[in-house]
Write a structure and sequence with these properties.
By secondary structure, the chain is mainly alpha-helical. The chain has seven helices and no strands.
Amino acid sequence: MTLTIYERNGGFPQLRRVVTAFYDRVLDSPVVAHHFEQVDIKRLIEHQTRFISFLTGGPAPGYTDEHLAHVHSRFEITLDEFDEMVELLTETLEDFDFEADDISEIRNELRKREPVIVSGR
């Protein structure tokens, strides 16, 4: 039986640590930090941990493209901002010793969702 990325990398507890470290980088980024000035980061970390769990083969709470588009549309996220988030997540995954193939798969899953997340110019 093949393990999922989620299972190979420690499941929800480890992904929460990854996402927490990721948001430390996000909040330091001059490109994207402005989107998070009025955000409850603890709540967002919990939400994003569930999303990354979903992307990696963990429990799937129902992240449809329609849901993602609805949630992100008000932020007018640009392609440059989306790219920055993907790169910050990649760096974080590397720091947590995720395998290169796993990182590539996670990046691909995120890139598939670019059209429903990016809405700004």
